[in-house]
């Protein structure tokens, strides 16, 4: 998180299936395809497509609906609980306002019940998009340093995970990430929480926050420790800095997937390496525009990544904060890659293949995607 989002606040169509409701005005960058003639059929296909998401943040997924519920639990907070007032609050005027809103949401997560509510409701928003499996990036350090007891925190996310699976059909797994801006103390604490408390749903260890001034190699000991405990390595790298950062993530942190990796296209040797080693990139197009890592969607390098043979997955990062959702990101990727329904289904299968789900979960979700495509064609 450190994005200056584009600002508008106009209403847009959402990809939630009929019957569900996400009635919020949300900002989104220009250049999408939602108003393109002829995109309606593909949009409907994407809405119903079973999907996996690999790069999406916990607090960054708090939609205005969820924020309203949290605000209602804490009437003394600065965040309005009234729907209309909250919609206005979520219309970002500039970067400083975005940070203010983000921190206000962080401030609403004060106890274990808030954590449980946030996590379960994020899964509910996922289910409305037919996201069936998600590796949610959680930053436990942010909550434990604010006084939420660590065991209560773990119980809250695990309780929400079990309920999401049973009641919503959404399988959640965790990536615990180090907030890079908080330095080595946060790294030490995140590694301790991951390795000592290790909740059942935890599958990976990450590194987020700013890249500039936060060299990846300094985090090697913490990643070594997490990897030794059987966790997968998934740092952010090469979003706001160059390809050297991606090499550092691979060499020092033994990255198995790269968060963003946008600047990889500036280094043909790196692209070839990623393709040859089958190291996936977690691409988040709208986020890249909002953070200005890429100037415009039309200049997004996703097609170069695919052309080089890299396994590309499409993700939403901090979706309500960026005025997007996973369906919208798939629509954008479809336009940039010139994909039809079969191509979009392949993209969805990429995410399943690149996930850390057990083989049986992968094969059944892939089979569901194939069956959905076949029924769509039929
Ligand atoms: Zn991210």
TrEMBL record:
<dbReference type="InterPro" id="IPR001365">
    <property type="entry name" value="A_deaminase_dom"/>
</dbReference>
<dbReference type="InterPro" id="IPR032466">
    <property type="entry name" value="Metal_Hydrolase"/>
</dbReference>
<feature type="region of interest" description="Disordered">
    <location>
        <begin position="1"/>
        <end position="30"/>
    </location>
</feature>
<feature type="domain" description="Adenosine deaminase">
    <location>
        <begin position="50"/>
        <end position="371"/>
    </location>
</feature>
<dbReference type="GO" id="GO:0016787">
    <property type="term" value="F:hydrolase activity"/>
</dbReference>
<comment type="similarity">
    <text>Belongs to the metallo-dependent hydrolases superfamily. Adenosine and AMP deaminases family.</text>
</comment>
<keyword id="KW-0378">Hydrolase</keyword>
<keyword id="KW-0479">Metal-binding</keyword>
<dbReference type="Pfam" id="PF00962">
    <property type="entry name" value="A_deaminase"/>
</dbReference>
<protein>
    <submittedName>
        <fullName>Adenosine deaminase</fullName>
        <ecNumber>3.5.4.4</ecNumber>
    </submittedName>
</protein>
<dbReference type="InterPro" id="IPR006330">
    <property type="entry name" value="Ado/ade_deaminase"/>
</dbReference>
<keyword id="KW-0862">Zinc</keyword>
């Amino acid at each position: 998180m450190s994005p200056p989002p584009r600002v508008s606040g106009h209403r847009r169509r959402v990809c939630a299936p009929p019957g569900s409701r996400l009635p919020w005005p949300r900002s989104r960058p220009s250049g999408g395809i939602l108003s393109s003639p002829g995109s309606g059929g593909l949009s409907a296909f994407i809405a119903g497509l079973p999907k996996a998401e690999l790069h999406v943040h916990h607090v960054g997924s708090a939609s205005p609906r969820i924020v309203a519920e949290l605000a209602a639990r804490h009437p003394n907070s600065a965040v309005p609980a009234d729907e209309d007032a909250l919609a206005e609050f979520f219309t970002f005027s500039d970067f400083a306002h975005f940070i203010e809103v983000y921190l206000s949401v962080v401030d609403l997560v004060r106890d274990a019940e808030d954590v449980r509510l946030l996590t379960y409701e994020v899964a509910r928003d996922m289910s409305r998009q037919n996201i069936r499996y998600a590796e949610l990036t959680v930053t436990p350090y942010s909550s434990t340093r604010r006084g939420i007891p660590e065991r209560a925190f773990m119980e809250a996310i695990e309780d929400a995970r079990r309920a999401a699976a049973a009641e919503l059909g959404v399988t959640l797994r965790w990536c615990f990430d180090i907030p890079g801006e908080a330095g080595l103390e946060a790294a030490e604490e995140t590694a301790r929480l991951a390795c000592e408390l290790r909740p059942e749903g935890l599958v990976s260890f990450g590194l987020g926050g700013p890249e500039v001034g936060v060299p990846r190699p300094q985090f090697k000991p913490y990643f070594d420790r997490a990897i030794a405990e059987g966790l997968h390595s998934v740092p952010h790298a090469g979003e706001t800095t160059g390809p050297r950062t991606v090499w550092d993530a691979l060499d020092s942190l033994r990255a198995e997937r790269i968060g963003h990796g946008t600047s990889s296209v500036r280094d043909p040797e790196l692209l070839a390496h990623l393709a040859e080693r089958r190291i996936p990139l977690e691409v988040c197009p709208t986020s890249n525009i909002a953070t200005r890592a890429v100037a415009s969607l039309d200049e997004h390098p996703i097609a170069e990544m695919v052309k080089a043979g890299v396994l590309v997955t499409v993700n939403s990062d901090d979706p309500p904060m960026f005025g997007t959702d996973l369906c919208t990101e798939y629509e954008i990727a479809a336009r940039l890659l010139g994909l039809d329904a079969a191509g979009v289904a392949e993209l969805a299968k990429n995410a399943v293949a690149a996930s850390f789900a057990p083989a049986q979960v992968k094969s059944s979700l892939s089979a569901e995607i194939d069956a959905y495509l076949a029924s769509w064609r039929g």
